[in-house]
Write a structure and sequence with these properties.
Helices cover 68% and strands 3% of the residues.
């Protein structure tokens, strides 16, 4: 926010500002506020601005000030004061709705907003995912002629991206006469957040051709798109760029690289990144353990899990899911039981979620412990998910317990009656058992519901243009 020219500070204003800057408690601020109201000094934009800054840690005090500024005593507060209020509330996690209320009061009191009003107003709408209100504010931006301000445009990009309205985000982006690194980054983030990873990487490539140098946030979002689309070559290019530019691997960037290498099947490179990092947090450790789980290196994942605890990092829910998945993929049943039992006993400070139960059921069904797995499902305090029933279905088929597989298959159909794959699996099971009447029954259900078997597909990344091709059976 650009500063307004300060008026000549008289002795009274100087003393008040000094009191505000030295106040250390909420009661003290309330006493100063009472004196300001008594002597009608909140009309002074400099004083009002400093009051707002000092009250920004207290939503209740900010609410009082907002009410006073729009009371009958001050029918038309200065736009600079309103902007200060909007900015203060936009940084409060519990008050994202209030900036919009202030903006509406500005309209009612004929306070004309300027280009410094909209970025923080739109930030609050982005945080609260208020798409309809953002569209209304977008209309005001156009009517008032502030669309040429790049900070306002970037804020519009951000609110549409955060609300998952990537089409509107792209439209605003395409209409921008000038784009900076923030503009490109927000569009990449928007595509990434809605799962359009290939589109995110296309925008990232276009950014290079436009001569815009990516920043750390750009690379974190691009790496996430690489990780989820399997675009290893692009991820390696980003890593090479980081090295060429001599950028230090901070926690976010380093963790993103580890996650990308792990999901693309190059966990050794991810471990090399981990070792080169000066600072790590629990997310970094989680990325390593998840990568090892995907690589089916269960024993190594457990070793890193133990090392994580030894170095004083607290395991969270994601950590436990990752290490239990590693045990499942590698058939480490006893260690999986120990970790899960410790979780149930409260060692980690939280109760197991349905994901943890799903991992434990998967560990047991893969090992053929079907009765134990089914008992785990019956005693769990959560409703079984399709993942859990899917594990029982697969385990039952693999270990010859077709009754359990049949039971699980019907549960899956109950959960997702429009999913053709479950019907096909059940039909195939009945065919294996020679129960042809039941095969006909399931096929009839599929016909009545208009279900067709989904086509299988796979993808492969080819050089030299590093394109990802999809093949459909």
């Amino acid at each position: 926010m650009a500063p307004v020219p300060l008026p000549h500070l008289n002795n009274t204003t100087t003393r008040i500002l000094s009191l505000l800057n030295t106040s250390t408690s909420l009661p003290h601020l309330r006493q100063i506020q009472a004196q300001l109201i008594l002597h009608n000094l909140l009309n002074d934009t400099t004083i009002a601005h400093h009051v707002i800054i000092n009250a920004s840690h207290s939503p209740l005090l900010l609410n009082d000030i907002a009410h006073i500024l729009f009371s009958t005593q001050l029918r038309r507060p200065h736009v600079f004061t309103c902007n200060s209020l909007i900015r203060a509330f936009s940084h409060s996690q519990a008050c994202h709705h209030i900036p919009l209320s202030i903006y509406i009061r500005m309209q009612k009191t004929n306070v004309l907003p300027n280009n410094y009003t909209f970025p923080f107003l739109l930030k609050s709408l982005s945080d609260s995912r208020e798409l309809k209100h953002a569209q209304c504010v977008h209309t005001h931006v156009v009517k008032l002629g502030h669309l040429g301000d790049i900070y306002v445009r970037n804020s519009l990009l951000d609110v549409y991206a955060s609300c998952g309205h990537v089409g509107s985000c792209r439209k605003v982006f395409d209409e921008m006469p000038y784009r900076d690194v923030v503009s490109w980054t927000v569009l990449i983030m928007g595509y990434r957040n809605c799962g359009r990873y290939e589109d995110a990487l296309v925008v990232f490539e276009r950014m290079q051709y436009a001569g815009v140098v990516p920043n750390r946030v750009t690379m974190v979002n691009a790496l996430a798109a690489c990780a989820n689309s399997g675009a290893l070559e692009m991820g390696v290019w980003i890593h090479d760029f980081v090295r060429r530019e001599g950028l230090e691997l901070d926690v976010r960037l380093g963790t993103s690289l580890i996650d990308m290498y792990g999901k693309c099947g190059r966990i050794e490179e991810g471990l090399a990144v981990f070792r080169s990092m000066k600072e790590r947090n629990s997310f970094t450790w989680n990325a390593v353990i998840q990568g090892l789980a995907l690589a089916k290196s269960g024993k190594e994942a457990v070793w890193w899990f133990n090392r994580m605890e030894q170095e004083g990092f607290r395991a969270d829910e994601v950590t436990l899911v990752a290490v239990l998945c590693a045990c499942s993929h590698s058939g480490i049943v006893d260690v999986g039981r120990q970790i899960f039992d410790a979780l149930v006993d409260g060692k980690y400070g939280f109760s197991p979620s349905v994901k943890h139960y799903a991992c434990m059921v998967d560990i047991l069904t893969r090992a053929g412990c079907l009765e134990e797995a089914f008992k785990c499902v019956k005693v769990m305090p959560h409703e079984p998910t399709k993942t859990i029933w899917g594990s029982l279905l697969a385990g039952g088929r693999a270990h010859g317990n077709l009754d359990l597989s049949e039971f699980a298959a019907w549960k899956l159909i109950e959960l997702e009656p429009e999913n053709a794959a479950y019907h096909v699996m059940l039909s195939n099971m009945y065919a294996e058992m020679g129960r042809w009447d039941d095969v006909e029954k399931v096929r009839g259900m599929m016909k009545d519901r208009g279900l067709k078997k989904d086509l299988g597909c796979s993808s492969v990344e080819l050089e030299p243009n590093e394109s990802v091709y999809q093949f459909v059976a």
